Amino acid sequence: MQLEFFADPTAFLDAAGDLLAADPVLGTVIAGVSERTAREVADGIDSWAEVGAPFERWWVVVRDDAGDVVSAAMRTAPFKPYPTFCLPMDDEVARALAVALHQRGEHLGGANGALPAVQVLADETARLAGGEVEVDHHIRLWEAREVTVPAAPPGRLRQATEEDAALVLDWFTRFHVEADEQAGREPDPDSGEHNTLESVLLRIREGSQWLWELPSGEVAHLTGRSLPSYGVARVGPVFTPREHRGRGIASHVVGELTRGGLEDGSRMCLFTDQANPTSNKIYEALGYGPVVDMAHLRVV
After folding, report:
1. What is the mean pLDDT of each successive set of 10 residues along the chain, which is 300 residues long?
2. Helical packing angle, 9-22 and 28-42, nearest 10°
3. Which of 27, 172, 183, 280 could lock 20 by a disulfide, CB 3.0 to 4.6 Å apart?
């Protein structure tokens, strides 16, 4: 087995394309992030320059003895502890990746991705650094091949516009805080995806953010649906302010966006926090089924 690192997302996608296309649901995070980063680079946007991480972001493919790409990982998260994200890989490869990062002098403070590979990577990192592994949270990847859309509550679904950018940014931030609270965890301002007004505007311009507007004109809900990568679109985040919950808005919007994606020819997936039984039950009722369990781990 051989590890091949990349600093350029387009070069990585050229190398990993067949792997990501072979199981595009499992590879949705790496494919989506890599393609979005490639678009930013092509447009002259260097979002990583604002991160201030003590290393350059990277992608890596795992090649077998025949030279075929059999797995991949990346370290592109723009928030501390800058966790990696890995696809399933053999235990020996996960350990080899930990060793390679240790030899580069790159401290790995977190590891996200598919089990058991992510656990092996974190355990070996902790062993090399003299640290310990803590579970941040367990997540589950789901896919819907068909969907049952609940009846629409009063209001309408519309795409977010640039005028909604400040609200969308605020709700992105609140989503991570309240997701921790709903799962019984102390909210961690350093965890989860961090966004800026510019990053939100980019997502709005690509048409990936959707809002539910009440008959009064008040906006009551946000759901994201990513652009398809290798034929797969991902739903999330899903956020309803407390004062608008219990009306079936989230169930309808997720169902409607899923239906639209399926009708457009995309496979549809989403992630849930395993510690939040409410959201797991809602998405299962819509038609989503579990694909694989993953974990977010910290090395301390």
Report:
1. 97 98 98 95 88 94 98 95 97 98 96 97 97 95 98 98 97 83 63 77 95 98 98 97 96 98 98 90 96 96
2. 150
3. 27
Contact yes or no for 4/61 (Cβ under 8 A): yes
- SS3 state of residue 4: strand
How many other CB atoms are found less than 10 A from the CB of residue 200?
A: 22
Distance of alpha carbon 135 from alpha carbon 166, whole angstroms: 32
pTM listed for this prediction: 0.92
Residue 256 dihedral angles phi and psi, to the nearest 5°: -70, -40
How many angstroms separate the CA atoms of 259 and 244, rounded? 23
173-178 LR contacts (CB < 8 Å, sep 24+):
174/239, 174/241, 175/222, 175/237, 175/238, 175/239, 178/239, 178/242
